[in-house]
Amino acid sequence: GAGVSQSPSNKVTEKGKDVELRCDPISGHTALYWYRQSLGQGLEFLIYFQGNSAPDKSGLPSDRFSAERTGGSVSTLTIQRTQQEDSAVYLCASSLGTGPWDGYTFGSGTRLTVV
Amino acid sequence: AQSVAQPEDQVNVAEGNPLTVKCTYSVSGNPYLFWYVQYPNRGLQFLLKYITGDNLVKGSYGFEAEFNKSQTSFHLKKPSALVSDSALYFCAVRGYNFNKFYFGSGTKLNVKP
Fold first, then answer.
1. Which of A53, A66, B65, B72 is most buried, by the most CB atoms less than 10 A from its CB?
2. Are B43 and A98 inside 8 Å of each other by CB?
3. For the segment B47-61, what is each residue's pLDDT rounded down to a tens digit?
């Protein structure tokens, strides 16, 4: 597609429920990233996918968080047994390559509210 | 360790005046520095980047940034601010061997008419 697409744009869920957030990157972009933006905070790195390599999961805050990327394209971030502290905007970004000079293209984010 | 600091949570400036949004960084090796802007309910948009070469980098919407190696800074500047520049600005850095950006906490720019 023309840009990075994320769905849903907003999600309200009850504490303890599982949620799935979807990211559709720009076609041909090999790298895909998930970040979390909490109110008043910067962007917190969650996970990174590059081609067929093992993902870098070093930013996932707990084992309730997981992500997969199917066919090198669409990615799904899953949060199990959601907690109120999971409320944030979840941003997905993709990049054509992984050179340090390659910038990201961000999606508009999914605003997750856990009540 | 890699890190980025944006010391000001908020910057207020009058329309037509020059603006500066500060950023300092820490990274092993040569830094690759970026500025992004975020408008309400939108994702981050690329403004400009420093890879190598001239220390003064020009980007979108009349913004520029100056790389200062000795001060490990990459401040964002604009000679004349517009009300429409009001947004959240993020500085980001990564080194050559690092596959992800480290972002600052963001600076909210308020430009008043």
1. B65
2. no
3. 999 988 889 999 989
